[in-house]
User: Fold these one by one.
Assistant:
Number 1:
Amino acid sequence: MKKTIKDLDLKGKKVIIRCDFNVPIKNGRITDDNRIKESLRTIKYAIRHSAKIILISHLGRVKTLEDKDKYSLKPVALRLSELLNRKVIFVDDYKGKKVENAIDKMKNRSVVLLENTRFADLDGNKESGNDKALGKYWASLGDIFINEAFGTAHRSHASNVGIASNLPSAIGFLMEKEIKFLSLKIKRPYTVVLGGAKVSDKIGVINALAAKADYVLIGGAMAFTFLKASGFNVGGSLVQTDEIDYCYDVLNKYEDKIVLPIDVVTAKEIKSGVKTNLRFVNEIEEDEIGLDIGRGTIKVFKQYLDDSKTIFWNGPVGYFELSEFSLGTKMLLDIVSKTSATTIIGGGDTGSAAINMGYQDKITHISTGGGASLKYLEGKELPGIDVIDEK
Ligand code: ADP
Ligand code: MG
């Protein structure tokens, strides 16, 4: 068993909490603050126990100097301060004098948020590459490390594994909840629904999940690489060309388990108000993009879902941000929420869809991690959890 925040004496200590504040931000506004809300319990606990709270997180992928404007955590500090009803001091750097001065001035119960840890990636990929010196430096800023970032627990970065290797450590309440639900005993039939756009990230786990699950229903952009591997012409749909052979092998190996769409909603462009068509998968035209599963597919998927005792779903089955292509995701949410199965949804976008469409209370657990929950269910150790001290 991993230590939790409750196992440590926080009073007067500088407690570094690695949160997952990787939230969608459009024009400086946070469009989904669920991950911030999910971290409140741990932050409030640390405040109640008179700690000095130093919050850190990554946001997005930082590759160029321009990304620094797009991915500043400043909007998160503002939102967090509203949610906590107290001042959150934002430091616009992730290391150096400004950071150290702000921390020196902290009193018990004050809350500081440092700038995006991935700004360190502009300096030789130090965050994502788990640079030893950077992990050590961040650790030197505090007395205790709490990992609350489930969404990045499958990655070995300086801001999780690096710091934890240099300080007494524990998990927070959100991490504890994630582990509890993702470790529930699986009752069969066990159905996995996979969708979304991060095909290259997710495609590798299909093999492992297919081995464990009774059925794997595939929608979203990912379906098109599989359809292509099955010999269909998928027009301008998103296809991961270098994974076609892999998908072909997976399909052969698990032909009784993998269920692909039989029809899809297509359009010539991805934009609001565009004309849409319902096509059988053998009818997709060269200049069309597949953007949602069709009604026939929803019916087929329903039969599997209704029969399931455990359902895990990662990745929206369509381009749900546009109402033209959101029906598949909405209908599946409806079906899943009405089954008697234990239902777990993982992934930032899938979670957002579930919450925005009003299904939050009808799902057993909405995980804050996409890749992390997939890896966990695959049975893999997550480095960000593994590194935490045992009780
Ligand atoms: P999650 O965040 O839940 O892990 P992903 O980030 O992998 O999911 O994918 C979510 C994205 O996938 C959404 O922005 C959605 O619009 C997109 N998407 C789903 N289906 C398609 C499709 N057929 N074509 C293009 N994009 C799609
Ligand atoms: Mg996503």
Number 2:
Amino acid sequence: MSWKKLTVITCILFFFAALPLPGPAEPAAAPLRLETGDPPLVALTFDDGPRGATTGPLLDGLALREVPATFFLVGERIQGNEELIRRMALDGHQIGVHTYGHVILKSLSRQDFDLQVGKTRALLTDVLGEGEFWLRPPYGMIDRTDAQWAGSPLVLWSVDPEDWKDSDVDRIVSAVLEHVGDGDIILMHDIFHSSVDAALRVVDALLSQGYCFVTVEQLMEERQLTPENGVQYRRCPPA
Ligand code: ZN
């Protein structure tokens, strides 16, 4: 399975019971449809954090723009970043799991799977209280058996600018803007300064094009947002 193939996977795998887990080149679910009159929606997602030096400025930039995002956290980065994670939640971002040690979720024993996913969920519960904490498997790789243990929706992506490949902000921004459309899930990494700069430029560009930013969970609610406690951004361009 190559990175190139992973980049074209669309976009959400729902509960394992309903999965046929796809091969890498097959869409797992139909893209969300834009209904007439609805603004285009997009979900910005960040993997591999948190990292104070970069996630902090990203949260500042997102808050300034009132834009929600979704963060898939690496468990071993949670300790020492508790305040940052609490701020994510308070700012209205969705928080999920990206395993404890950024491992490939294939051929793991149940015990090892729980050490990667269950342990990370437990750490997040300690910081944030009870939550579902959806799972994004590192590299988008997971086998059917491990998927059955996920206990939450699995989230992949549909637009991948490969922001880890270099620190060329212009290239990363262009790679997103050339491929993004309604219902897309953009994959980025909040551990790089260049990714933070690029993400905020993407936000400004897409807001100016009429996009609304939502979390992945909000996207899956098919534009029916249900504000609960706390901040629930649904950032759209000014009318
Ligand atoms: Zn990752």
